[in-house]
């Protein structure tokens, strides 16, 4: 079967791989749609992510959906032909974190597409049935492939403890930031401001997702933290946000978020980036600013499926580019170069 790999030489290529056979607790999924995540691009271009180095050929991809074509002997909850989305973090189930309900923090987690665990950018993959989530027969595979990134957005909203009527700012209008916008809107947050330095991203949010022009602020990378925070507050008619979702991972926007927040506000850090060494802890203490981090998702997949299939949120417009498996090098180039204008790139079959 054909699969998409990277290797220690930073090559990105399509090659043959053996067809998988299911273990007793696994199913084989014919992968029909997969999204390309920024972490896939990082593993390819930098050869490492989160301290996990690519030391051998690694199959990429972890945002996937497909149909079951083989079922392990002990699997009872799924059958041939079922449509499923794939939860990529395979936790041990027995450590303290797993037993406490925080399986996203499992120290023994096997997260597919993070070295050395092969991912899902292949024609077929074997995966434990307990980490497969059933989709309705009417759900498009491309929608199913959006469940994984949506789970990160839902985990972020839950970590922030967002409530009806909360004012919210979202810094970073990539796919996760835009999904957070959809979920915040559905949760009754108001007002909401979406911030990005790319006018094209903001224009896309307005045209494709129905974001109001009054809800967007184009960030000035050369602006001071105080000035940029003031622009966010001005866009909210003088209201400071109760919650800021920081989705870029860059130090500058983190400082802007802290300055913009209301007293007792919550900074929810979603982006993965460089360490921030000069946080204003004294100011945060006196204003009682909470800083919360989001590490993957926890018990969010099934709820995301319900939100999607019941029409509560519609992330489908986020998919701007579609390619075949053999076109993977072109797909990864589009996903990693801003000038391509991609929000979410899918590989479909």
UniProtKB/TrEMBL annotation:
UniProt catalytic activity: L-arabinitol + NAD(+) = L-xylulose + NADH + H(+)
| Reported cofactor(s) | Zn(2+)
Q: Which GO terms describe its biological process?
A: sorbitol catabolic process
The organism's superkingdom is given as Eukaryota
SMART domains for this protein: PKS_ER
Q: Which residues form the Enoyl reductase (ER) domain?
A: 9-347
**What keywords tag this UniProt record?**
Metal-binding, Oxidoreductase, Zinc
Q: Which InterPro entries match?
A: ADH-like_C (IPR013149), ADH-like_N (IPR013154), ADH_Zn_CS (IPR002328), ER (IPR020843), GroES-like_sf (IPR011032), NAD(P)-bd_dom_sf (IPR036291), SDH-like (IPR045306)
Alphabetically, the GO molecular function entries are: L-arabinitol 4-dehydrogenase activity; L-iditol 2-dehydrogenase (NAD+) activity; zinc ion binding
**Class of this enzyme:** oxidoreductase
Q: What is its EC number?
A: 1.1.1.12
Database matches in Gene3D superfamilies: Medium-chain alcohol dehydrogenases, catalytic domain, NAD(P)-binding Rossmann-like Domain
The similarity comment for this entry is: Belongs to the zinc-containing alcohol dehydrogenase family.
Question: How the protein assembles, per its UniProt entry?
Answer: Homotetramer.
| Protein's recorded name | L-arabinitol 4-dehydrogenase
